[in-house]
Specification:
The protein has about 270 residues and is mostly helical. It has twelve helices and two strands, in the order H-E-E-H-H-H-H-H-H-H-H-H-H-H. The radius of gyration is 26 Å and the shape is flat.
Amino acid sequence: MKLYDRIFKPRQYTLPNGKVVEEKFTRLPLILLILLICTVISVNVTGFNFTVLASNGSKFFDILRDMFPPKTDYLPKIWQPLWDTIKMSILGSFVGAVLAIPFAVLAASNIVTNPVVLFVVRLFLSLVRTLPTLVCALIATYIFGLGTMAGTCAIAVFTFAYIGKQLFEIIETVDMGPFEAMEALGATRVRAFITAVFPQVLPTYLSVSLFCLEGNVRYASILGYVGAGGLGLIMNGKIGWREYSSVGMILIVLFVTVVIIEWFSHAVRKRLT
């Protein structure tokens, strides 16, 4: 930055009191140059071809045009997969959110003082977070077979890792005065946490859980691509058979469902905060 300021000298202004102040030259040209260099490097490394994008990009709009008008006759066959998707999302979110609580407590440095326990639990949460949801669903299909059980497990693992990370960071920011007072009165650390700490983090915990549920509804619709049931399973089949009007109907139903769940979640989170 010093070299940049030497090349593009700052503009000087003299204030009424005689003091001279400097306005540095905008960094926008430098930022654009860095972005251009990074774009050229990424295009060369990945083999991205703008010619192919320009020639085949119109096919996306061809597919989009084939989706409308949607095939309304297919709507009755969507309800059961949609219900499976919602069940996977709700159950997986609930199980993951509940399991995250004890691990978040063990990962909070203001509750647990043992550095070995903190390291092991935080490492475990980090490892679980690195697993993509689709990979978890694929592994679950080999264990539990095809169906919603695999999707529920994958969503529960994702929710557990996400909320566990968020929750232990929230716990570390709470006021520890009531917790220490409970311990001084002879309460166990578990009792002190439930009485003094958990009420402080409960609104944020519920808000994060509901936010996670919103995303899980969308994720659950994709898990069917690896055989985990739900809307993704029938969507994959219809795309394979090029029945885009049926795909359009599935997407409309999914869109309406996500909007309703997001509206409900937003209303609840607004009351919590």
